[in-house]
Structures are given as C-alpha cells and as structure tokens.
Amino acid sequence: MMEFGLEEFINRADGLLQIRKCELLPGDEVVLRTKNSLYSIEVESDDSYKVSGGWFDKMALSPYKTTINGCTWGGSGIKTDIVAARGLFLEFGNRLLTSRIREIILFSKSVKN
Fold first, then answer.
1. pLDDT at 111
2. Which residues contact 56 (CB under 8 A, 6 or more apart)?
3. Which of 45, 38, 86 is closest to 68 using CA atoms?
C-alpha cells in the first residue's frame, strides 16, 4: 500500500481518469471494471445510487440503493467528490471497498434515451 500525505493524494487523484459526482445527473450510469468485479452504478439523485454487480450480486442484494463515500488509494484518505477514478478503490456508503478500478464507462441519460 502506498503511503503519502493528503496534499499529494489529492494531486495524484486529480491527474487520474475520474468521474466527479457533480458531473452526474439522475439517470446517468457508470460502469466500472475493477480487478475482481464488474459494477453498474445508476445515479438516482445527488447522493443516492442504485448499484448492481460484484459483491452486491454475490450477496443477492442487486440492485442495492446506497451512497458513495468516494475513492481511496487503499488507505484512510478518501477523495469524497468522485464516484470513480482509474487506479483507485471505490468505497460505497455501506463501507464496502472495491478492488482497484481498471476501467470506467459513463452512459449519460441523454445518450441512453
């Protein structure tokens, strides 16, 4: 696990391919491929998401309504303004931490209609 200060964490995260919470609208969908799983995250409102795939499928909880805490390098520092960033780990509101994000695809509601 990498260890570095908060300022360096923020600077490194800003340079990654990422999806910011403020860029998403209700109905948008973010699909993530992590090292171990595939997740579909549909935006319901500013801080509410419907998640399917990965751990939620394994626990027979899909689709699961939750929040997203943000992304981390794997330590305790978390960037709370992003839904996903390539190379980071996503933390859901139930404290579930995904494996490292490898691919991000955004489907805008306007494109899906």
1. 65
2. 39, 62, 63, 64
3. 45
